[in-house]
Amino acid sequence: MSNLAAMTTAITSGKVGAIRIRPATNSDLPELIALDEEVTGLAKRKYWKETFARYGGRRKLQQFFLIAEQRGRIEGFIIGEVRSWEFGEPPCGWVFAVQVRPKTRVKGVGTQLFEALCAAFRRAGVEKVRTMLARDNHLVLSFFRSQGMMAGPFIELETTLD
Amino acid sequence: MKLQKASSFALYAVLELAANPTSQLSGTEIADKYGISAHHLAKVLRDLGRAGIVDAARGVGGGYRLAVNPKRLTLFDVIQVFEPVGPENASKDDPELATDAGCALRMVLDELDDHALATFRSITISTMLKSMARRPWVESPRAARRPRKAASSR
Fold first, then answer.
1. Total of domains in chain B
2. Sign of CA dihedral B33, B133, B142, B122
3. Contact present, B124 and A145 (Cβ < 8 Å)
4. How far is B119 from chain A (nearest CA, A)?
5. Where are the beta strands (DSSP E) in chain A?
6. Torsions phi, psi for A75 (to 5 deg)
7. Distance (Å, rounded) from C-alpha A63 to C-alpha A93?
8. What is the pLDDT of residues A116-157, one digit of tens each?
9. Is B84 on the interface with A (CB under 8 A)?
10. Which CATH number belongs to the domain containing residue A125 in this structure?
11. Which pTM does this prediction carry?
């Protein structure tokens, strides 16, 4: 089974109808930029083009940029990659972006995206999934907690440079 | 870290009610299951009722049921009914803040409280029920077979 075929799944949810999870393509960029702008209030065209160049496309084996689509409309996306030997740790999956259209939230779209990304990570041979986010971002923290994620073995530290 | 008894009892009750959404449970039923004081739990349930977290029905067949969506109710929402959670709002007159040692210590304690607050605010009752069903504290056979890695740093 090709990587693309393995990642493309049609999942039926009772609440939002059939959601198709598939890899992002170049033609998704305008809608992705608009969705991100709807959620964050910022249009980041250059950022999304660079992000797609790094994580999008069909031939990536360690980077994953997945779209949740319903009736031809993008309802959300998730981005992650396999990172190896950071902090002495064996390869693990990192989730660094997940977004669902506000009106489609709490209907399982984020869960389907997360499960599809985890499936891709498993196929890439990793056993752990990690993420990092602001501790006052309770909404997204709650989402990851609901997926069974808990505090990991690392503590993030920072300082202000003089 | 340890929660006050009232907070723990409240969480047991809320989890029990969330796990049984179609039935009303009495305080005694919940107290018996967790081996806790029915008298103390009755007080806790009254406080939860006043906070709008549970509804009480009197009379034969009466009991308690959850009044809010467990997907929206967090551990913080329940605990803060019984005890303060998160960094304290220290006043400038606080003698602890009159010295550098006191200020440095306060900074460390606030960091711990910030983490506790973020944890309690991000875990819903629904997530707790999932965790109870998954039982992650029981080591999976796959994890048990894996050799333990020696501690290392970068």
1. 1
2. negative
3. yes
4. 8
5. 9-13, 17-23, 63-70, 73-83, 92-100, 129-131
6. -105, -15
7. 9
8. 999 999 999 999 999 999 989 998 999 999 999 999 888 889
9. no
10. 3.40.630.30
11. 0.82
